[in-house]
Amino acid sequence: MRRILLLAAGLLFLGACEAEETVKEDDYETFKDKVNEESFTGFVYLGEKWEMEQAEYIPMIAEVFQETGAVLYYGDLNSMENVTREKFSGDRIDPDIYLPVNRLAYIKEGEVVSEWGAREGRDPEEVEEQIRHFIDKYSSGNYDHKKE
């Protein structure tokens, strides 16, 4: 009986962890389609670790989202399936496709409201504070709905 209770508790814990997932990662095509849906609302970030200076910000961004409970749709071009450099380069220059490369963006009903670039502010504490401010501002809905 004790084993059954421990197993049940473990399954409940795992289920709670999955239910609280704040950083959601998809393959390239799914990410691209989701971000470009007219009805999409949320935070997005597409990391391109080919630029090594950006790689240090990715764990920080994920940690802040986990702490705040906000949801981030994230993509990492180096680990995404079904993307080649040529495919990505073609999509990136297509004016009908939005890809938030190395930019944390907030999208409301298919429209980009604002972007924050990881290159702004080099001090890690300052960067973390900027990310928190960005999340708080757009999670609360207290902003001008025109693109900033």
Question: Which tags fit this structure?
Answer:
single chain, alpha/beta, Glutaredoxin, globular, disordered N terminus, Thioredoxin, signal
Q: Could you explain how this protein is built, in words?
A:
The protein is of the alpha/beta class. The protein has a single domain (21-140), classed as Glutaredoxin (3-Layer(aba) Sandwich). Helices cover 46% and strands 18% of the residues. The protein has 6 helices and 5 strands, in the order H-E-H-E-H-H-E-H-E-E-H. It has helices spanning 2-19, 28-35, 52-55, 57-68, 85-93, 124-140; strands at 23-25, 42-47, 72-76, 103-108, 111-117. It has a 5-stranded mixed sheet, with helices on both faces. A hairpin with a 2-residue loop joins strand 4 and strand 5 (111-117). The longest helix is centred in the first third of the chain and has 18 residues, at 2-19. The protein is globular and about 35 Å long. The termini are far apart.
Kindly report the oligomeric state of this protein. single chain
* CATH topology category name: Glutaredoxin
Termini distance? Answer: 58 Å
> What general outline do the C-alpha atoms trace?
globular
Going by CATH, the homologous superfamily would be Glutaredoxin
Unreliable runs: 1-19
Task: Set out the fold topology.
Elements: H1 2-19, E1 23-25, H2 28-35, E2 42-47, H3 52-55, H4 57-68, E3 72-76, H5 85-93, E4 103-108, E5 111-117, H6 124-140
Parallel strand pairs: 1-3, 2-3
Antiparallel strand pairs: 2-4, 4-5
Helix pairs in contact: 4-6
Signal peptide: 1-19
Organism: Alkalicoccus saliphilus
Protein name: Thioredoxin
